[in-house]
Amino acid sequence: MFKSGLAALIIVLLANAEAQFGVGPPFGVGPQFGVGPPFGSRPPAGFGLPSLHGDGFPGPHPRPHPFPNPRPLPPPRPLRPPRPLPPQPPQFSSLRLCTTTQLEQDKCLYALDIAGNNSIDLKLECVQTDSFDDCLQAVQTKEADLVVADEHEYLKARSADLVPLLYAHETLTSYYIAVAPKNITLLELSNATLDVNAMDERAFHAAALFNLHRGHDLCDQAAEGDVTIQIIDSADYDPTDDELLICADGSVLYAGDYDYSECNIDAGLELGIFAPRPYDTNRSFTRLLQNVFDTLINSLGQESEVWNFFSDFQGTSDVIFKNDTSGFSLIPVNRNGVTEQKFTSLHCDQVSLDH
Question: Taking the model in full, what pTM does it have?
Answer without folding.
Answer: 0.72
